[in-house]
Amino acid sequence: MWNEKFDRPDHLYGVEPNDFLRSCYDAISAKGRVISLGEGEGRNAVFLATRGYAVTALDSSSVGLEKTKKFAESRGVRVETRLADLSKCEVGDREWDGVIVVFCHLPSALRAEVWSKISRSLKPGGALVMELYTPKQLEATKAGRSVGGPKDLDLMVTADEVKRAFPEMSFQILREVEREMQEGDGHRGLSHTVQVLGMLGK
Ligand SMILES: C[S@@+](CC[C@H](N)C(=O)[O-])C[C@H]1O[C@@H](n2cnc3c(N)ncnc32)[C@H](O)[C@@H]1O
Q1: How far is the CA of 151 from the centre of ligand 1 (A)?
Q2: Ligand 1 within 6 A of 62 CB?
Q3: Chain segment 116-174, per-residue pLDDT in tens
Q4: DSSP designation for 153
Q5: Within the chain, where are the H helices?
Q6: Tens of pLDDT along 92-103?
Q7: Left (φ > 0), alpha (ψ -120 to 50) or beta: where does 144 sit?
């Protein structure tokens, strides 16, 4: 499905990084190793690489990762790409200074598995940056106020779920927000998300 969606000349979610990531990426140790899960076409990975991070972009879409590589080249930076399905791969063991999850929505059972892998994959003091749609987004898209996000409640995420899933994290930011979104054709309008900046205890 994502290969077809990304098979277009431009970037579905634009080439600018996600606003929330831009606002808080520097909580990740400078020049650290970062993995972006469900990176898509590269906008967030390339942004982080231009800021000096060593970035790995993981996605199950080969088309997305090809676009990521080309986009990185065009900006004169290197992004390592990893073609993998999160339902079948490991994420690492105390390997990353930062893990990024921007609109990588997974079914609840898989989400629980992947999130516990995220905790193990972060170094002590490592940062998790996530922005995901909440259930309220379903109403917003139905009413035509917003474009973007899954159409299935099971894929949506609340702040409460995040808090329960990461007991070992201290959250500098954990909030549900209503915000204007302008990310290419794919994410637009007044949208409902949960924003997370968590640090793994040392
Ligand atoms: C809504 S797009 C977001 C892309 C990117 N993070 C962004 O914000 O521009 C969701 C991405 O998650 C990826 N994805 C979904 N399920 C996945 C899985 N099980 N394993 C790996 N990637 C997955 C898709 O291929 C797609 O690139």
Answers
A1: 15
A2: no
A3: 999 999 999 999 999 999 999 999 999 999 999 999 999 999 999 999 999 999 999 99
A4: G
A5: 2-6, 19-24, 43-50, 62-74, 108-121, 136-142, 159-165
A6: 999 999 999 999
A7: left
96 lines ligand 1 (CB under 6 A): no
User: Across-strand partners of 190?
Assistant: 180
The SS3 assignment for 22 reads: helix
Q: Is the pLDDT of residue 202 over 80?
A: no
In whole angstroms, give the CA distance from residue 53 to residue 32. 5
Q: Kindly state the DSSP code that residue 27 receives in the 8-state scheme.
A: G
Average pLDDT of the residues of the chain: 97
The answer on pLDDT for 38 being more than 90 is: yes
Q: Which domains does the chain have, with CATH numbers?
A: 2-200 (3.40.50.150)
Two tokens, residue 191? 């949208």
H or E element in which residue 1 lies: none
